[in-house]
Design brief:
Blueprint: H1 6-17, H2 21-26, E1 27-32, H3 35-39, E2 52-55, E3 59-61, E4 66-68, E5 70-75, H4 82-99, H5 104-116, H6 123-133, H7 139-150, H8 156-161, H9 166-176, H10 184-200, H11 212-222, H12 231-247, H13 255-269, H14 274-284, H15 291-316, H16 319-322
Parallel strand pairs: 1-5
Antiparallel strand pairs: 2-5, 3-4
Length: 326
């Protein structure tokens, strides 16, 4: 069976992108016969057996005179037919670009939920394949691949016609409020929500990895203004202000320690919900700017919260009932 030609690939992609004008405006699509034709000496750095890739860095298009948010690369010799090629486009565009239509805090919440639910029925099978194929990658990369892999198994007409009303609820319940573990249907509905948002223009890129240094600086500068807040934000301000005063400058502060003290006090002494504390710290802490940092923070809260919630529950009991505990 012959490979798809570049012209055939461009025609298929152009037809596909009519349903996703946001991607047409924000991404550059590059089609080459093989990874070596595209990357040359850097080919060895690509995943063996990969059919394409997504890069989130800004690119200036010399012909269209426009700065794009990223690029999708496709290797034509790895595709058997049109259906195979479309599955790759859905994987890269709706999966990898689509997950960046969440804010950084939302993306880390989604990835954390996917990671925490890797043993749930339906997701377990996806995880087993991804962990084998991406055994040398970090768990956050694997979780994003699980999300992107979902789109390979959904047809376009289902993505655009299926009722997406369940998507926001599924995302809130499993990723933000964390009232229950994520199931396969939840991930499916979240994926459909993303695809339909890119289709109708309501979702564009919100997570920009290259801006981490700017976000860190903004969060440092914003710390004094947290004084007028409440809950975990105010508790964080107290510990952050004291830490900066002691260290002499923000760059010398152990932000993991500041976050830890905030977590213990907010959940163990004030009775705040772990999910709320996680969201707030991911939004304001200079130590939780990157996806990796936020996932480490969320993981720490998941481990500590049962003990801290039990600690708060004991404090709430009348003194005579506490004495009966063993």
């Amino acid at each position: 069976m012959r490979d798809l030609t570049r012209r055939e690939a461009e025609e298929i992609a152009e037809e596909f992108l009519r349903d996703y004008p946001v991607a047409w405006n924000e991404l550059v699509f590059v089609f080459r016969k093989s990874a070596s034709e595209l990357y040359g000496e850097l080919t060895g750095e690509t995943l063996v057996g990969a059919k394409g890739g997504y890069l989130s860095n800004d690119i200036f298009h010399p012909v269209r005179k426009f700065r794009h948010r990223g690029s999708v690369h496709v290797y034509l010799e790895t595709h058997k037919n049109r259906a195979d090629f479309l599955a790759t486009l859905r994987h890269e565009l709706l999966g990898h670009f689509g997950i960046n239509s969440f804010t950084t805090t939302e993306k880390s919440a989604l990835l954390h939920s996917i990671i925490e639910s890797r043993n749930e029925q339906g997701l377990k099978q996806f995880w087993s394949h991804i962990q084998k194929e991406y055994s040398d990658k970090s768990v956050d990369v694997q979780a994003e691949e699980v999300f992107a892999r979902v789109f390979e198994h959904i047809q376009i007409n289902r993505l655009l016609k299926f009722v997406s009303a369940h998507g926001p609820d599924a995302f809130r319940e499993t990723c933000i409020d964390r009232t229950r573990p994520m199931q396969w249907d939840d991930l499916l509905h979240i994926g459909i929500m993303v695809a339909q948002g890119i289709h109708d223009g309501s979702r564009t890129q919100q997570h920009f990895p290259q801006d981490y240094d700017l976000v860190f600086a903004d969060r440092i500068n914003n710390i004094p203004y947290l004084r007028n807040s409440d809950g975990a934000t105010y508790t964080f301000w107290q510990h952050a202000s004291e830490a900066i005063s002691h260290a002499g400058e923000p760059g010398k502060v152990d932000w993991r320690n500041v976050e830890g003290m905030t977590i213990i006090e907010s959940i163990g002494s004030q009775g705040q919900k772990p999910a709320d504390v996680a969201s707030r710290l991911c939004e304001i802490s200079p130590g939780a700017v990157t996806i990796k940092q936020q996932l480490e923070l969320r993981g720490k809260i998941s481990v500590l919260s049962p003990q801290l919630e039990a600690q708060y529950a004991r404090k709430r009991k009348p003194p005579n009932e506490r004495g009966l505990e063993r």
